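Rotation project, supervised by the postdoc (A.L.). Task for the rotation student: set up a whole-complex structure prediction and record inputs and outputs verbatim in this book. Inputs entered:
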Amino acid sequence: MTCLPGTSAKKLGLVIDLDTCVGCHACVVSCKEWNTGGYGAPLSDQNAYGADPVGAWLNRVHAYEVTPAGQDAQIVHFPRSCLHCDDAPCVTVCPTGASYKRLADGIVLVDEDWCIGCGLCAWACPYGAREMDGQANVMKKCTLCVDRIYNENLPEEDREPACVRACPSRARHFGDLGDPQSEVSLLVLARGGFDLMPEQGTRPVNKYLPPRPKQAREATDRGAAGVAAGHERPEGFLGWLDRALDKLG
Amino acid sequence: MTEITAEHGLDPSPKVSDEVRCTTCYMCACRCGIMVHLRDGKVRYIEGNRKHPINRGVICAKGSAGIMSHYAPSRLSKPLLRTGERGKGEFREIEWEEAFDIAVSWLKPLRDDDPRQLAFFTGRDQSQSFTGWWAQQFGTPNYAAHGGFCSVNMAAAGIYTIGGSFWEFGQPDWELTKMFMIFGVAEDHDSNPIKLGLGKLKERGVKVVAVNPVRTGYSAIADEWVPVTPGTDGLFILALVHELLRTGAVDVDYLLRYTNAAWLVVQNEGQADHGLFARNAAGKPLVWDRARNGAVAEDAVDAKPALKGEVRLDDGRRAVPVFELLARTYLDERYAPANVAQETGIAAAQIQRLAGELARVAFEEEIVLAQPWTDMKGVRHETMIGRPVSFHAMRGISAHANGFQTCRALHLLQILLGSIDCPGGFRFKPPYPKPLEAHPVPSSASTPNQPLRGPHLGYPRGPEDLALDDAGRPIRIDKAFSWEAPLSPHGLMHMVIANAHAGDPYPIEVLFLYMANMAWNSSMNTEGVIAMLEAKKADGSYVIPKIIYSDAYASEMVAYADLIFPDTTYLERHDCISLLDRPICEPDAAADAIRWPVVEPDRDVRPFQTVLLELGVRLGLPGLTDAEGKARYRDYADYIVNHLRRPDVGPLAGFRGERGERSGRGRPNPEQLQRYIENGGFWQEHVPADARYFKHANAGYQDWAVEMGFFDGPMPVTFQLYLEPLAKFQRAAEGFGNRVPPEHLRPRMKRTFDPLPIWYPPFEEETLTATGKLDGFPLHAITQRPAAMYHSWGSQNAWLRQIHGRDPLFVPGGICDELGLKDGDWAHVISHHGRITVPIARMEAVNSRTVWTWNAIGKRKGSWALKLDAEETTRGFLLNHLIHELLPAKGDGLRWANSDPITGQAAWYDLRVRLEKAERPAAGSEPSLSATGSPVAVGPDEVAFGKEWCR
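Outputs recorded:
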């Protein structure tokens, strides 16, 4: 089995705002586009133009319907990718050392030269965040765009994961969650960011921000009355109108 | 077991690309700026251009998947001539020279004899100022683009009412608005700007209200959901209006300054002038001056206009101000929340509360910007006052038979709240607003070998501007601007094939289409349309004799064309996103953009606009040729730079003048395209600070607009709460005037052409009710647009089809329980017109009487280089099969169009259905049409894009 490197002080990760995600899949495709020509083997697609096309993706968005008690049903869009856990079971289960977590920044990666495609890590991951590539038979996962975030061939402002760069509703944030004063940490604090399935004991680095409560349709608090009191008949309203016009002078 | 801790080699700074080229996306209609990374001559990666005004760096799923469309196996590669029967997909590859010869031999005789015999309709292209100009030079009246089956109700209602509309005309003030209400499906148009805007609202904690039968996409993140019943948005809006009036929550000052609220309407029931504006000798509408106690011109500087009270004009006629008519109409109990609750599916309490919230935010959370400005009367204002409520709507409220009036109702609501082009409200984008007077009226009279006198598409002011011949018959093949659809500024593309097939109003010889999938998802009654394309006369020749089509891909329409001009992909072509056309401006900037060939085609294909120019030269069209008959423009790129629409005004507004120093107006600049390329593919010029708001009445803005060349003199807009052209049609329907509608259309015209926005039930429902059949079709059926797929142009995309390759019909839980349906079951979906059999999925977050699916996921076998068993053909489907271009028979011996009676917009979302549980058909979704042949090979089993660059 493979060892975790001890606790990294720097914990790079994503903060994903479930209140803002419209489920547009922009992050999903930009991720695939960047990574299919980058880190490791391409993200291949089988039956690409046939029945049941299936490809390797490092990030997917799922739509769940939930009905909170006493409220209307609603849809929550849930982007799902590797959470770069501090206690990453996908690393410790790896028989070859291919799956590893970096001490320097906490990113969990797969060294594809070492990967034998046994799939144990995917079974061990409680989040389903790893996908086997159908052509290269190596395990693929989110690299946090490790080949972007330090890439000196990119302008500094572009040194962020492709999904964050793409997200049109700005629902994705990238930063150091090990630094309590970082923008992402403060955002988590302010918005009540949470760990996904904390009971699994994986101590994920990525955080999710919850959807804010919805307005109940039945609520009758009107916020405020109109400028004038209720005119049930046109004559009353037109009378008010005279006074309004007089006020204008 | 050994514990492994090892160092892993990793290059954190790999090479990204050899070169980055900035151009404009075309994976949907949004027109975002993109940066195309090239490596080894191939497209490595596409990302958003951070400097671009539309997308500010972000990119959507479609944009990123552009690589898969650019390299799609379904790309056509050579001009094609049909060899088999239509629909078989059997072609012979030909050279371009032969293709041009054939097209000229078909088209030249038509121009010589009867130019109407050519019907030229373009689909989702964005070069309509060019294609329209070409058709004008040819001389056919039969030209339009796809707006008639898309969102013309929104566009037309906006232009007639406020001089602009949503999307390309204007948008919410995302920076300052404090309450935002979004109606209907909106995920496909203006998609990245709306997502960016929603992100900003969320950051500021602004309340978002979604009015949509389906709670997906943008509606999913809204703070409040209004699960409106399809087709009743107008009733909901007018109930809000009722509440605002009842509580006196209207901006009276704003109404007096910027609208026709005070204009006097003649009250002369049963006479020709009833309902028209009272005007002075110079034709100026009159208002009643409370100070003088007499009528004065509406623009009199010192008048104190009355908003109520009947007056007697000097000529003895009676008249009342618009606002009194308006107040009496909407204060009627018909529009009381309690009285609309059942039809709209929205509780009265929710309507009342929302009206109260709109009023509170508009009036109690007023914004005051310390920005002086001067209005059109020369009055200086020290501040700009904002009513920070904003709205957006697009196709959802448009695609109904009551859509025009519903869109008008929404603008009425905005106006009453004083929230049009003010801080925090809705903001116009230059070159809008433009008043009705700034738009042309339609031109339609054709003469052999002569160009049409003016543009095809325009805005009629009354019956006098209709495109009718001396006998009152429609001049156009789509019957646009006829009594059946008088105000149809986008034409009626969805009626072209049916009318040409019926020879009504006349047969045509050549149907010429560009980028419009009329044999599939762009037509109602798909199977019927296919039959019309295949139909033959007794002599064995086709009823529609010749079909020319241009597309980049092997779409379903290809199999029905006789001659194919293969187009390039969007990365291989020049285009201009022009202010003359469908601009990409922002409220604070005029902007336009180009596409340019960032990669060269590897196939024998040519960009359609260049092909059209070449064809025009060979036909000797004026405008395209010089005195010697030689080409004026080398290609489309040359046209973009050198064409002048007016003196010093051409397709692109940026970098004009011989040295590129001019904006808006200026001589052609031979280096213009290079300057655009250097600037990231776009140009923008910021609106001056004092011109940012109240553009419709702001002297600073109007001066700037004239300087920029949007118009040649100031064009302020007075918002038309009361729309006089509609009153003129009502009078025509009463028999007044020398142009009157046929008897059978008169009652409907009288009822629906109300000069104040009204609501009436969708025609399909009304017709089914009248014939006692509504009980058989208790449910509404609509589509939503997935943000990750754009119409059919995504289905050949190996990545996007993994996201949306199949679509169930989503069925409300209550209906599932009633019919014993569960997830994964199949059902027959039955309308008055047909039956489909499809998979279903249970859903709760939907209006309880509405079923829905994603738009245009289903594909025909044989198309798009997909395998015959592709899931789009077995588990995808089209609702189109259930929708007829005509309404159910009423028993009056007539068949009425399934369209808005004012604009002719296709009423897609009026569909009524019932469900029955079904067995899964052996071949999957039904109907399962036979496979067409294809000019392209089926795509490969496996794709591993980027292999050569991987470590």
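Student's summary: Chain A touches chain B through 106 residues (CB under 8 Å).
Supervisor addendum: Chain A has one domain: 12-209.
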